[in-house]
Amino acid sequence: MISGFSYMKVKTIQDAVSGLAKGSARIHAGGTDLLGCLQDHVFSSDMVVSISGLKELKGTRETPEGGLSVGALNTITDISESPVIRDRYPALAQAAAQVASPQLRNQGTIGGNLCQKPRCWYYRGEFHCLRKGGDRCYAVAGESYYHCIFGGDGCYIVHPSDTAPALVAYGAAVNIIGPVGMRTVSLDHFYVSPSKDVTKETVLEPGEIVTGIVLPPPVKGLKSSYRKVRARRSWDFALAGVALSLQISEGKVTNARIVLSGAAPIPWLAFDAEKALTGSILDSDSIKRTAALTVNRALPLKHNAYKIPLFIGMIEEELINISKA
């Protein structure tokens, strides 16, 4: 049962920032993760501050540099069906189309998808785990089928977002507003690994709100995609996923971003594989080498070593698809 709380629907973003300063207030946008967290007692709140009516946080606009500015309140469906995103940033549209179910995509927002809480069954359950201030990660000795194979550092959650890896692959940033003003943070520095702070998922400080996402202009020769493998065709989170963003010139990969989902507590950049692929022709040898290097530092738990061949096969297929595009 959800404990009682006050509800505040704001008319300005500054009112939202002020409202978040009161007690244990939480932000409400689409509400698809918030209500689940309150129901599961992941956290409590005595005040819910709704920003759902703020029109300035909706819509997609061109930036002066030729990129896109995407409002945090755009729904996941808005992202997946946007013609300009499909054309310029296909991996993001593909990732959004694979989020949850149609009902949740219609309600959930892109800002909420980036900031959602982990889905680990120990964290969401009645276990006083490390992330909730306890002394252990129960996945280490428990059931670890869906947990991470990279970057655990004591807490073995996987980051739940599909859109985050795609946005990291494109070099996107988030705009944030809070009590001390506005700031912009590159998305690959937005997430906090357990080794830095096991109680935090993002760099957001108390009272701060993500207001939008900024995508840089797509470069010439850019090819990108997002692939997700899950237990069920719809609804499930990623067992393994990858966002690819490759710049190709005269047949060679001149820049590569390979970002994994379902793999780590944060969107996971496969630096070794990126380095090996850069400067190479995208052929069968480089594809096999890249896929193998993507998981060369994996440290699986007892039940999730199956993710290693799953990632290798999936990444090989996606690179082959890009080479033929």
Written overview of the protein:
- The strands form 3 sheets. Strands 4-5-8-6-7 form a 5-stranded antiparallel β-sheet.
- The longest helix has 18 residues.
- Among the domains are: 51 residues, Uridine Diphospho-n-acetylenolpyruvylglucosamine Reductase, domain 2 (2-Layer Sandwich), CATH 3.30.43.10; 103 residues, Enolase-like, domain 1, CATH 3.30.390.50.
- It has 11 helices and 12 strands.
- A hairpin with a 5-residue loop joins strand 4 and strand 5.
- The protein has 325 residues and is an alpha+beta fold.
Q: SSE layout and pairings?
A:
Blueprint: E1 6-9, H1 13-20, E2 26-28, H2 34-39, E3 47-50, E4 60-62, E5 68-71, H3 76-81, H4 83-88, H5 90-97, H6 102-107, H7 110-115, H8 163-169, E6 173-178, E7 181-186, E8 209-215, E9 222-229, E10 240-249, E11 252-261, E12 268-269, H9 271-277, H10 284-294, H11 307-324
Features:
325 residues; alpha+beta; 5-stranded antiparallel β-sheet; 4-stranded antiparallel β-sheet
Produce a short descriptive summary:
The protein has helices at residues 13-20, 34-39, 76-81, 83-88, 90-97, 102-107, 110-115, 163-169, 271-277, 284-294, 307-324; strands at 6-9, 26-28, 47-50, 60-62, 68-71, 173-178, 181-186, 209-215, 222-229, 240-249, 252-261, 268-269. The chain is of the alpha+beta class and 325 residues long. Among the domains are: 1-51, Uridine Diphospho-n-acetylenolpyruvylglucosamine Reductase, domain 2; 222-324, Enolase-like, domain 1 (2-Layer Sandwich), CATH 3.30.390.50.
